[in-house]
Every structure is written in C-alpha cells, then in structure tokens.
Amino acid sequence: MAQVPPPGSVVVADWHLCKDSKEYFSKILHKKRRRNFGLLESPVMPPHVAVDTVHYKIFISGKSGVGKTALAARLAGLNIPNMHYETTGIETTVAYWPVKLKENSRVLFFRFQLWDCGENALRRFDHLLPSCKEQADAVLFLFSFTDRTSFDDLPNQLAKWTELFARRVVKMVIGTKFDLFMHCDVAERDVRDFQDTWGIPVLRTGGEVTDGLGDVAPLLNCLAEKLWYQDCITAGSASLHSQQETVTPL
User: Fold this and answer.
1) Which residues contact 67 (CB under 8 A, 6 or more apart)?
2) Do 114 and 77 form a contact (C-beta atoms < 8 A)?
3) What is the reported pLDDT for 127?
4) How many CB atoms are located within 10 Å of the residue 30 CB?
5) N or C: the chain end with fewer CB closer than 10 Å?
6) Digit-coded pLDDT (tens) for 140-184
C-alpha cells in the first residue's frame, strides 16, 4: 500500500480558518502570536473538551546554511534568527498543532519535537547521529533555492537515511528561501524532475512570518497527515499480522 496519502485526504485543510477551530488554536496562541512551549509544557483545554495528544520526533536534515534552525523556529512560531550561525550540537524545539481528522471529525493535538543538529557537529561527534535517529518518526530534508549544491545533495541524503532506518519513517523535502527568487539557483524544471524521479513532493517556505498560522499551516498539516497515515498503516499491518499468528493450521 502507498505510504503517501493524497493531499487533504486525512486532515481538514485550512481548519485554522474555520470557526469551530478557534477554541483549539487559542490554546497555542498568546496575544495573536504562537506560544513558546517548553519540553514539559502543553496546551490546556477545558475539562469538558477531551483532546488526545500524539507525540512525534522530527529530525531536520540538510547542509549547513540551508535554514534548518530557521525552519524549526518558523514551525514553532518563534523568532527567526537574523544571522546564520552553525548549530554546535543538538537543539530541540517543540511545536503543537491541532488537527481535525476528515474521517471522523476527531480533533488531535500533534506535538512535534523538532531536532536540529549542525552538519559539522554530526561529522565530528559520532554519538550525535544515533541520538538524532533514535525513535525518529520523520525526516525533513532541506535544500535552499539559493544554494544549488544543497539541492544536488538531496539524493545522497535520502539514500543515507534510507539505509539508517530499519523501520518506516516519513520523508519530506522542503525548499527554503523560496522568496529570494532573484538569487534562485534551482529552477522549477529541476524540482519537477526530482519529484518525478523520487516520488516525493517538494514543499516550499520562505519570507516573513505574518499571522503565525497561515504561513506554517500547509507544512504542519502535511506533516501531520503523513505521520497519522503512517501510524494507521502500521497499526493495520500489526493487526493483520496478529490475526495471521492466531490462525491454527489444519
């Protein structure tokens, strides 16, 4: 069975614009800006509203300077760094995102723990990569539209992470600095060829954050959709395997 669900088939797209979502999104906002959640903090809903939270570990992969730290800040609603600096070790950022499932209108809080590690640190310290890989549910492969070498390196990244993981993980490719079209080194034709070859859609991000929701909703909804779909497929496979084991041979 395919691991990639048709876009918008699992979660309600643009739910953050619907009236019935306001109660949930208000719990991740403060004065119309995203709240900063620590590792032990979570949104608090009224007692009469029961909402389950699902936890996922996301590793952000890419060459130095493509915008891994900036993407983590953007997805979590934090201030994006004005200057580039090489991440010296592992940095983790928590982002909460409420989602409404299409199948049964169930609402879930997705807790994304975003792991960002500097490229040079990964090369120097052998213990960092296993820590990033351990129990990861998804990998975001980043390239910059202003850096051709980061785009050309994508096949190597995909091949490396496919070898590293024995279990199934969600893979997403994101092109950063899409707003800097005057300095673009990656053509749309190249992106289309990559998508046709690898069968992985390329998402785009860049520019200033405005309301803190509309800018990140496409990325977070896509990530939530793929992760939830993967869990459903895994649970279905486990259930089928369990049923097969209980069959008594004649």
Assistant:
1) 142, 144, 176, 177
2) no
3) 81
4) 11
5) C
6) 999 999 999 999 999 998 888 777 666 689 999 999 988 777 778
